[in-house]
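INPUT
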Amino acid sequence: MRRQKITFGEMREMGLRRVLVYCHCGHHVALEADRWPDEMRLSDLEPRFVCRGCGSRDADVRPDFETGKPPLSVRSTHKLPG
Ligand SMILES: [Zn+2]
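OUTPUT
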């Protein structure tokens, strides 16, 4: 049974704007999440996505935490002297 994931609305509340779609073949793609409605779940998108690499419909959709990070985490990489 497919695990139910968060909605795009919840994802946007976390400040995340992109999703990463992973396939078991290793193919993955980053997509802007703006096109999907707030009430839709990431898990609802999974059966709709067709992999360009192998044609599979069994993708894993996750929020893109890397590029969607709020500015707070970027600041910590720049250490001030003293
Ligand atoms: Zn694939």
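end of record. Helices lie at 8-13, 42-45, 71-75.
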